[in-house]
Amino acid sequence: MNSYSEDNYQSCQMKKNLAVLQEVDFFSQVPPQALKIIAFLCRRMFLDVGEIVFAKGDDPARCFYIVSGEFELICTADSGGESHIAKQGDLVGSLSLLARHSSPFTMTASKESDVLVIDRATFEKVVVQFPELYKITAENIAKRIYRWDALQCEKRCSDKSPRGGVSFL
């Protein structure tokens, strides 16, 4: 590919990525210029059925927006072997943008899938230029945790389970 073709391809890909990210609620408060940079720096990943994205215990160091396809998020024996399905429109691993951590699950493609990948190092470079992005992201993650916790509390109340939720910490 010559330089013009490569530049044209990158510009086209950035526009596609930007269009996708603009529809993601998690990124709705991100300043437009910062979102354009993220769209340019993120990458597309195409996975076949059975491909493992990361394993339990790994630091994913990136988050994944599922453009199409489906993933099984598999917890091992210490959680009773439970699994969860992440599908088109789901964002997996947003905590990875802010901090290193060990994943509590293995992420495996259960269908052919297309994902946008934003890695922590790239995100940190954008935060240097847009410091408010860190606070926006932390607030969005907190909102997601509270929504998840509310659902878990509803389940526990109906099951009469005595355990508290994450927001009790």
From TrEMBL:
Ranges for the Cyclic nucleotide-binding domain?
A: 26-144
Instruction: Please cite one Gene Ontology biological process associated with this protein.
Output: regulation of membrane potential
Pfam families named among the record's database cross-references: cNMP_binding
UniProt-listed InterPro entries? cNMP-bd_dom, cNMP-bd_dom_sf, KCNH_animal-type, RmlC-like_jellyroll
- Please provide, in alphabetical order, the Gene Ontology terms of the cellular component aspect for this entry: plasma membrane
- The lineage's top-level taxon is Bacteria
Task: Name the SMART domains for this protein.
Answer: cNMP (SM00100)
Q: Name one GO molecular function term.
A: voltage-gated potassium channel activity
Name recorded for this polypeptide = Cyclic nucleotide-binding domain-containing protein
Q: Which organism is it from?
A: Desulfotalea psychrophila (strain LSv54 / DSM 12343)
